[in-house]
Write a structure and sequence with these properties.
Blueprint (H helix, E strand, L loop, with lengths): L16 E12 L4 E13 L6 E10 L1 H8 L8
Antiparallel strand pairs: 1-2, 2-3
Length: about 80
């Protein structure tokens, strides 16, 4: 993946080490409106200057996404 180094501003192609994975639930009014956000951090070392590169990724996921991840991949029907 290409990322921008915060120190030297180069854009090296690096492999990220992923960590700190989370699924965050946010509830809005009305109370039945819940939003799920998947979030993970990726870390690499810049091959040009040696600085640590940290990037956070996040995506809103639906109930259907969660069902797909947990049920359909195991070959079970909904």
């Amino acid at each position: 993946m290409k990322v921008t180094c915060p120190r030297c501003k180069n854009e090296p192609e690096v492999y990220l080490y992923y960590y700190d994975d989370q699924i965050i639930n946010q509830q809005y009014i009305p109370a039945s409106n819940i939003q799920h956000t998947a979030r993970i951090k990726g870390k690499a070392i810049c091959p040009f200057c040696g600085a640590e590169i940290v990037k956070t990724f996040s995506k809103v996921i639906t109930k259907e996404d969660i069902i797909s991840l947990t049920v359909e991949e195991r070959g079970e029907d909904l």
